[in-house]
Design goal:
Layout lengths: L7 E5 L6 H8 L5 E6 L10 E12 L5 E6 L8 H7 L4 E7 L5 H11 L1 H6 L2 E6 L9 H10 L6 E3 L5 H16 L1
Parallel strand pairs: 1-4, 1-5, 5-6, 6-7
Antiparallel strand pairs: 2-3, 3-4
Helix pairs in contact: 1-6
Bound molecules: guanosine-5'-diphosphate (GDP) and magnesium ion (MG).
Length: about 180
Amino acid sequence: MMQLNTDKIIFTGPVGAGKTTAIAAISDIPPVSTDVSTTGDEKRIKDTTTVAMDYSYIELDDGTKVHLYGTPGQSRFDFMWSILTKGGLGLVLLINNDHPDPVGQMEFYLDAFKDFIEETGVVIGITRTNINDTATLEDYQQKLFERNQIFPVFEVDSRTEDDVKILIQALLAILEN
Ligand SMILES: Nc1nc2c(ncn2[C@@H]2O[C@H](COP(=O)(O)OP(=O)(O)O)[C@@H](O)[C@H]2O)c(=O)[nH]1
Ligand SMILES: [Mg+2]
């Protein structure tokens, strides 16, 4: 019988955090994206936005195929979040450091995905630090410490394959324990 491998990793985070970019950067295939033109306030952040999900896959060194799903960032699409996390291996949370309150955004997503994170695990990637470096890695780590949540935090450029791979490897490493 055909073996269906359903390992999947979910990318989440605010609009503009780099989820679509990160999935494209590490994909073995051209990713499926459901980006549409933005309107209103979001238009100031970027020209297109993800409405349903991003999807792609990678093959790990051991041959395992891992499906990659990106959630839509806007909370008006949060009904998609529980659908996409079902059966997932773990979460990659991307936070754009040029957001007015990036540490607050991290807290928002950690709360929103609390149950999934408790069942699995999360790694956090801080993007766009070259655009705004007001918040530092220590600020995120300090907040995690206060929340009693010790998760790996990395500064990454989601346009860079190696940076995104580090996040995936870190996630797989913590899931093994
Ligand atoms: N400077 C910088 N730009 C980035 C980084 N990651 C993504 N971007 C850019 O930020 C914009 C938003 O990325 P996108 O993947 O659409 O974000 P999404 O809303 O999370 O899917 C795009 O123009 C990316 O090229 C990063 O780490 N540094
Ligand atoms: Mg997107």
